């Protein structure tokens, strides 16, 4: 990435904005064709900093073909119908951007004073509106930011009826929101406080008005609901255990299921090193695939069979469904692909670390 030497001394926002004006983006979109059309949009860290962009399958493995530098770690990314990429900072971040890979400078949006982004976006209203999960930094209250999807102008914000609002999922004319429930304080960033007061919940909001239509909680207050994926009529929710004792975390479930009315827990999976920690989740066959970075594995669950034998993948986390039983998962220096029940392992550049999520581009 070419960078004017004067930009490297500027703090966060100013340096990124100036870099954008100077055209400091990787102009390799549309590089030489390969035998595979696989392209995945993601956020990553490497020796040069934080980036969002697109990786493509090449003979050497999965390689970046377009990227742009961002001020801090990104988290969730979205590919829009027109080919643009939306990305947002992980909590407690202050930036969001839209970028047409390799074609123009990014359009930056900064959080309002007293607000922080929590890492996830979703498009709604037939593409007319954009929702973001946010936090009120003064009160800790979870919020949904409502944005004009074209101009990225903020229109409104809604209460999520919980704290630590994380991932969202559109469900018809309603919005499902996972409130992680983990208390933090603005002055300490992501440091967790007073876990005995945890209150994770799944809420359903009217996607037109923000009105609360339903709220569901699990009996175990130390289970934090974070990421979601839909498969047919069933929503899978990946969770992270926040128990004090290692034995309790080891025994904790990492998957909850929601059928539209009831929140349930399948039998927990027993995997060495799992520690009650699930990363990304994606629809898989008639069930779900879950990244388990602490167990160095990808987990798979089917409603008729329960948990299948884990697939080994060092630091396995980000997962994207490729339809039916096929998916792609990121790990440490490797990408695991499952196509027609056959496993494919591709290389990633050694210095490149994919963040928690990626999507097909």
Question: Which descriptors would you attach to this protein?
Answer:
361 residues, globular, mainly beta, 5-stranded antiparallel sheet, 4% helix, 29 strands, 4-stranded antiparallel sheet
Write structural notes for this entry.
The protein has 361 residues and is mainly beta. The protein has two helices and 29 strands. The strands form seven sheets. Strands 20, 21, 22, 23 and 24 form a five-stranded antiparallel sheet that branches. It has a four-stranded antiparallel sheet with strand order 3-2-1-29. It is globular and about 50 Å long. It starts with 11 loop residues before the first helix and ends with a strand. 45% of the residues are buried.
Q: How many E strands?
A: 29
* Uncertain parts: 1-12, 14-35
**Mean pLDDT across all amino acids:** 87
Largest sheet composition: 5 strands, antiparallel
Termini separation (Å)? 22 Å
Report the structural category.
mainly beta
Outline, from the CA principal axes?
Answer: globular
Computed CA radius of gyration, to the nearest angstrom: 20 Å
How much of the sequence lies in strands comes to: over 45%
Number of helices: 2
Percent of residues in helices: under 10%
Give a brief outline of the structure:
This protein has 361 residues and is mainly beta.
List the helices and strands and how they pair.
Blueprint: H1 12-21, E1 39-46, E2 49-58, E3 61-70, E4 74-79, E5 85-89, E6 95-99, E7 107-110, E8 115-124, E9 129-136, E10 141-148, E11 154-163, E12 165-171, E13 174-179, E14 201-206, E15 212-216, E16 223-231, E17 234-241, H2 246-251, E18 255-258, E19 263-264, E20 281-284, E21 287-292, E22 297-302, E23 306-307, E24 311-312, E25 319-321, E26 327-330, E27 334-339, E28 342-347, E29 353-360
């Amino acid at each position: 990435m070419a960078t004017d030497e004067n930009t490297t001394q500027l703090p966060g926002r100013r340096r990124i904005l100036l870099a954008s004006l100077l055209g400091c983006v990787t102009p390799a979109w549309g590089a030489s064709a390969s035998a595979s059309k696989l392209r995945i949009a993601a956020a990553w860290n490497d020796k040069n900093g934080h980036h969002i962009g697109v990786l493509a399958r090449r003979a050497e493995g999965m390689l970046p073909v377009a990227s742009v530098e961002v001020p801090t770690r990104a988290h969730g990314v979205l590919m829009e119908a027109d080919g643009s990429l939306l990305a947002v900072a992980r909590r407690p971040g202050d930036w969001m951007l839209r970028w047409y890979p390799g074609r123009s400078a990014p359009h930056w949006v900064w959080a309002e004073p007293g607000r922080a982004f929590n890492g996830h976006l979703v498009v709604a209203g037939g593409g007319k509106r954009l929702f973001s999960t946010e936090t009120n930094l003064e009160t800790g209250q979870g919020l949904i930011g409502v944005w004009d999807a074209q101009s990225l102008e903020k229109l409104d914000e809604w209460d999520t009826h919980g704290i630590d609002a994380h991932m969202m999922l559109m469900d018809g004319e309603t919005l499902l929101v996972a409130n992680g429930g983990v208390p933090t304080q603005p002055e300490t960033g992501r440091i967790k406080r007073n876990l005995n007061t945890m209150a994770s919940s799944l809420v359903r909001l009217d996607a037109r008005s923000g009105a609360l239509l339903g709220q569901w909680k699990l009996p175990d207050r130390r289970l934090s609901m974070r990421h979601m994926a839909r498969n047919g009529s069933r929503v899978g929710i990946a969770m992270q255990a926040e128990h004090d004792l290692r034995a309790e975390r080891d025994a904790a479930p990492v998957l909850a299921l929601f059928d539209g009315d009831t929140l349930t827990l399948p039998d927990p999976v027993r995997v060495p090193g799992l520690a009650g920690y699930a990363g990304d989740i994606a629809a898989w066959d008639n069930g779900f695939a879950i990244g388990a970075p602490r167990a160095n594995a990808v987990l798979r669950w089917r409603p008729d069979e329960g948990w299948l034998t884990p697939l080994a993948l060092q630091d396995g986390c980000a997962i994207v469904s490729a339809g039916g039983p096929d998916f792609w998962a990121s790990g440490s220096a490797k990408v695991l692909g499952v196509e027609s029940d056959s496993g494919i392992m591709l290389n990633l550049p050694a210095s490149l670390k994919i963040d928690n999520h990626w999507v097909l581009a």
